[in-house]
Amino acid sequence: IIPDDECGKYAIDTDVTLCAGTERGKGFCGGDNGAPLISNGVVVGIASALPGEVNDCSELPAMYTRVSHLLDYINDVVNGGSTGNVTDSPPTNEHIAELIQ
Protein backbone atom coordinates (compact mmCIF):
# COMPACT_ATOMS: atom_id res chain seq x y z
CA ILE A 1 0.00 0.00 0.00
CA ILE A 2 1.38 3.37 -1.04
CA PRO A 3 1.26 6.45 1.26
CA ASP A 4 -1.56 8.93 0.52
CA ASP A 5 0.80 11.72 -0.55
CA GLU A 6 2.27 9.46 -3.26
CA CYS A 7 -1.15 8.06 -4.19
CA GLY A 8 -2.44 11.62 -4.60
CA LYS A 9 -0.31 11.92 -7.74
CA TYR A 10 -2.55 9.31 -9.40
CA ALA A 11 -5.88 9.38 -7.55
CA ILE A 12 -8.40 12.19 -7.43
CA ASP A 13 -9.49 11.70 -3.80
CA THR A 14 -7.32 9.75 -1.36
CA ASP A 15 -10.13 9.80 1.22
CA VAL A 16 -11.96 7.38 -1.09
CA THR A 17 -9.04 5.82 -2.96
CA LEU A 18 -5.87 4.06 -1.93
CA CYS A 19 -3.06 2.90 -4.19
CA ALA A 20 -0.97 -0.26 -4.13
CA GLY A 21 1.45 -2.21 -6.28
CA THR A 22 4.21 -0.40 -8.16
CA GLU A 23 6.02 -3.45 -9.50
CA ARG A 24 4.77 -5.28 -12.57
CA GLY A 25 2.65 -8.18 -11.35
CA LYS A 26 2.21 -6.79 -7.83
CA GLY A 27 -1.05 -4.93 -8.41
CA PHE A 28 -4.06 -5.91 -10.46
CA CYS A 29 -4.59 -5.96 -14.22
CA GLY A 30 -7.56 -5.47 -16.53
CA GLY A 31 -10.37 -7.83 -15.61
CA ASP A 32 -9.48 -7.81 -11.92
CA ASN A 33 -11.87 -4.98 -10.96
CA GLY A 34 -13.75 -5.85 -7.80
CA ALA A 35 -10.93 -7.99 -6.41
CA PRO A 36 -10.02 -7.43 -2.75
CA LEU A 37 -6.88 -5.74 -1.47
CA ILE A 38 -6.03 -7.52 1.78
CA SER A 39 -3.69 -6.17 4.44
CA ASN A 40 -2.98 -8.21 7.57
CA GLY A 41 -5.98 -10.45 6.85
CA VAL A 42 -8.42 -7.54 6.47
CA VAL A 43 -10.06 -6.39 3.23
CA VAL A 44 -9.01 -2.74 2.99
CA GLY A 45 -9.71 -2.03 -0.68
CA ILE A 46 -11.65 -3.07 -3.75
CA ALA A 47 -9.81 -3.02 -7.08
CA SER A 48 -11.34 -0.16 -9.05
CA ALA A 49 -9.02 1.53 -11.56
CA LEU A 50 -5.72 1.37 -13.39
CA PRO A 51 -3.95 4.62 -14.28
CA GLY A 52 -2.87 3.30 -17.69
CA GLU A 53 -4.52 1.25 -20.40
CA VAL A 54 -7.27 -1.16 -19.36
CA ASN A 55 -5.00 -4.21 -19.56
CA ASP A 56 -1.83 -2.35 -18.60
CA CYS A 57 -0.15 -4.18 -15.73
CA SER A 58 2.41 -1.41 -15.55
CA GLU A 59 4.65 -0.08 -12.84
CA LEU A 60 2.09 2.59 -11.98
CA PRO A 61 0.08 1.88 -8.83
CA ALA A 62 -3.39 0.43 -9.12
CA MET A 63 -6.26 2.25 -7.42
CA TYR A 64 -8.59 0.67 -4.90
CA THR A 65 -11.76 2.00 -3.32
CA ARG A 66 -11.24 2.23 0.44
CA VAL A 67 -13.55 -0.20 2.22
CA SER A 68 -13.42 2.08 5.29
CA HIS A 69 -15.06 4.81 3.21
CA LEU A 70 -17.97 2.47 2.46
CA LEU A 71 -18.49 0.84 5.86
CA ASP A 72 -21.67 2.75 6.74
CA TYR A 73 -23.19 1.77 3.39
CA ILE A 74 -22.02 -1.86 3.69
CA ASN A 75 -23.38 -2.20 7.23
CA ASP A 76 -26.69 -0.62 6.20
CA VAL A 77 -27.15 -3.07 3.30
CA VAL A 78 -26.04 -6.08 5.39
CA ASN A 79 -28.62 -5.10 8.01
CA GLY A 80 -31.45 -4.95 5.45
CA GLY A 81 -31.22 -1.31 4.42
CA SER A 82 -31.71 0.05 0.91
CA THR A 83 -28.92 0.01 -1.64
CA GLY A 84 -29.99 3.51 -2.65
CA ASN A 85 -29.10 4.84 -6.08
CA VAL A 86 -26.37 2.44 -7.17
CA THR A 87 -25.39 3.06 -10.76
CA ASP A 88 -25.53 0.23 -13.27
CA SER A 89 -22.63 1.61 -15.26
CA PRO A 90 -19.67 2.87 -13.22
CA PRO A 91 -16.98 4.97 -14.93
CA THR A 92 -14.61 3.05 -17.17
CA ASN A 93 -10.88 2.78 -16.55
CA GLU A 94 -10.32 4.97 -19.61
CA HIS A 95 -12.54 7.71 -18.16
CA ILE A 96 -10.76 7.57 -14.81
CA ALA A 97 -7.37 7.67 -16.55
CA GLU A 98 -8.45 10.82 -18.42
CA LEU A 99 -9.48 12.47 -15.16
CA ILE A 100 -6.11 11.93 -13.49
CA GLN A 101 -3.97 13.10 -16.40
UniProtKB/TrEMBL annotation:
Localization (cell): Secreted
Principal subcellular localization: secreted
Pfam families: Trypsin (PF00089)
Chain intervals for the UniProt region annotation (Disordered): 81-101
GO molecular function: serine-type endopeptidase activity
GO biological process terms, semicolon-separated: proteolysis
Domain Peptidase S1: 1-79
Key words, A-Z: Disulfide bond, Glycoprotein, Secreted, Signal, Virulence
GO cellular component: extracellular region
PANTHER family named among the record's database cross-references: FI18310P1-RELATED, POLYSERASE-RELATED
Name assigned to this protein: Peptidase S1 domain-containing protein
